[in-house]
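User: Could you check the structure of this?
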Amino acid sequence: MIGLAALLCATTLCADEVSKPFTASDNPRHSALDRAVDTAATDYFHNRCHVGLSLVAVTRQGRFFYDYGATRPHGDTLPNRHSIYEIASVTKTFTGALAARAVEEGKMRVDTDFRPYLPGDYANLAWQDKPVTLATLITHRSGMQRDIPDSDAIFAKKDFNTLPDELIALQKGLNRDTLLSSLHDIHLRSAPGSTEAYSNVAYLVIGLGLEKVYGQPFETLMRQRLLTPLGMNATGFAVAGADRARLLQGFNREGRLMPYHLRNAGAAWGLYSTTEDMAKYVQWQLDAKDPVVQRIRQPLVGTAREGVAMPWNLAYEAGQPMLAHGGGSGGMSSQMVLFPAQDEGFALFANDTCEGTESALKTIAVAVHNATGAGHKSP
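Assistant: Sure, the predicted structure tokens are below.
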């Protein structure tokens, strides 16, 4: 007689079950939301390159935290809502929020010459008398290069094992004074507003402008005007003391340990955070009554269906508005996705930079949103 197990293993069902990866998780799998997250996360971990995953879903019913995988490849320690990640270019949404507040307070304007906000004269930050503006800086249409010093040659190699160390070596001496000095030497590569070209420099320039109009260092502004009011006590530009025990290590697509970014990443991609803290940030970004949030969502390029705001990427998903912004460092990936019509948002972090991780995190959020429906009526 053929045993039941052998019989089952002769079917497609068994093959599917065998191929399904086991991934450690704290997901209780009780609610519709739990199950939707678990399905999306299971699909995500079919790529065994991935290491750890932490995410928060903010809905009308509350904040729901989920963690998967491990803190290191082949490890057995699960990350959690207090685990600290590099959030990389999701930092740009924080810088954009400060800039939006400055606009609302009348300290900056979106479409005027940005150079008066800088400490010094920068005749070079214009193309045939067309100057950079806050709108062109924040939407990556300023004509500025990616980094200072110029990192194009490093990125052109596409060597993900050496890129982080080479980038750190290149930027090791960069500070506020050397940044201001170097800004005099750059030349715009296109007319502001004409061409999209990713630029971390543009966000460092926004940070300099915010410092001048408020008369405070950028890190102080971030803490006093955004992080502290939201109660984001575990978020900042450095991780010190006992908190370093919660700082995860990051790994590249080959499983190699990667270095952390330098402190001078600042307004462009310098923040660390946790999903516990990011839940508060997501909740604020969903507050449609806040005038700063209203300003943040206004398209600067294109429309709400396909455009760029301050600095969210705007699109429609299943007929409803969606805002998203991702990030990646040497060894970590991040993503924020908001569905304002449903008062729903997600923050997702991974401690790997496998091929496609950043977009895969967005796929999780979209899949969960579509699977559960607006409002999560049965949480």
